[in-house]
Amino acid sequence: MRPLVRFGLEHWIALAVIAATAVGLVRLLRREPRSAAVENVVRLGLAAFLLVGLLIALIDAIPLRGLDWIDILPLHFCDFAVLVAIVALATKRQAICELLYFWGLSGTVIAMLMPDVDRGFPDARCASFFALHGVVAVSAAVVAFGIGVRPRPGANWSVFLFTNLYAAVIAVIDWTARENFLYLRAKPSEPSILDVMGPWPWYILAADALAWVIFWALMIPFRERPADTKGA
């Protein structure tokens, strides 16, 4: 099976399909008059797709290393982000939707830009990677811009602090179980953005700083303009 060529034709096509799906669903949900039935179909359809996709990916991984407790827990960022997306889509709870928005449009998008996969399409694991990551990103856009669950002021700080707490817990698990979740012990084997951030542990600090910048930028569409505050 041939490898995936990063930023080759099939990579660009995958990214374009994901972006077009996000734009299309957001425009569908923002049409007037708004339809609760359409919203429910989109929300629950995306949630069902993610749930089934996650179960298939878990079953598919069994021949690689078997299945023990550490494989069932959502320790990989992608697995946790998928679960966050499912809960956000199903419940529309504010805090969960905020977490989905910042994670889905930061780490998930970066992962798709620099995918940690060694085979290209139509390999099942490559397709699963882009399907799960892509629908998480689409769900983040749908929840924030289509359904309208906007991040509250300061949500970027709350999610940033939670992300660091999550990483601290994963770091303990990595240390005790000799794993490498979140790439806290070593960089991925495939080329990634971490390669330009220096050696361990400096690339971890650089990645944390980058996350803060991206979270700050993601708040820009939802910041109040001076005219808005005057008219309030």
Question: How would you describe what is shown here?
Answer:
This protein is mainly alpha-helical and 232 residues long. The protein has one domain (9-224). The protein has helices at residues 9-29, 36-65, 69-72, 77-91, 94-104, 107-113, 124-147, 155-177, 202-218, 226-231. Helix 8 (155-177) runs antiparallel to helix 9 (202-218). Residues 228-232 have low confidence and may be disordered.
Helix/strand/pairing category: mainly alpha
**Rg calc:** 18 Å
- What share of the residues lie within helices? 55-70%
Please tally the helical runs, counting DSSP H or I stretches of 4 or more residues: 10
Q: Would you count the extended β strands for me?
A: 0
What fraction of residues sit in β-strands? Answer: under 5%
The run of helices and strands is: HHHHHHHHHH
Global morphology: globular
Mean pLDDT over all positions: 89
Distance between the termini: 60 Å
Low-confidence region ranges? 228-232
